[in-house]
């Protein structure tokens, strides 16, 4: 049945491709949200993944043993490209004159759900891993892809998947604790550049107007 479905997709049958989308879209989206920590960006990744899969539909031949692994491999490449584009954008913005300072109202918005806080902490910690370790971890652990399928998705040996995953697990346990620790002590978590959102050692005091009388 899979062979017939793939044949229909390769021939340009959009209804057949919709069946593949319905079966795997949730997995691709979950992989993207866990990797990026951004709901909107994850939707973009999912859309771009299936657009690219449609463009590459002729590859649905014998070399694609697992459609799920193939799609997650495409999603991983999409996120690599997005990350590179974001770095180029940041580099370009860094060369511009500094903008006029504006009041920061972010302190007025406080997350209420612990799982959201842990997801954010995990996302920050994940971005501190090497890209190769991050890709293996998100595919094997969060997307529940087997070692062999992950190796197929990334184009690396199974032994490399195992070693990278082992290093990623060990680092993440430590990094997530570091990300959550400042919040537990009332300190702003550090950003990816290693700085905190406000100057260390300073506090914001409410202003008091003098009575005009």
From TrEMBL:
SUPFAM superfamilies per record: Sigma2 domain of RNA polymerase sigma factors, Sigma3 and sigma4 domains of RNA polymerase sigma factors
Superkingdom in the source lineage: Bacteria
Entry keywords, A to Z: Sigma factor, Transcription, Transcription regulation
Residue ranges of every copy of the RNA polymerase sigma-70 region domain listed in the record: 21-88
Polar residues: compositionally biased ranges: 194-205
CDD domains membership: Sigma70_r4
Region (Disordered): 185-213
Coiled-coil region: none
Keyword Transcription regulation: yes
Record domain RNA polymerase sigma factor 70 region 4 type: where: 122-172
UniProt key word GTP-binding: no
Family, per entry: Belongs to the sigma-70 factor family. ECF subfamily.
Protein name, UniProt field: RNA polymerase sigma factor
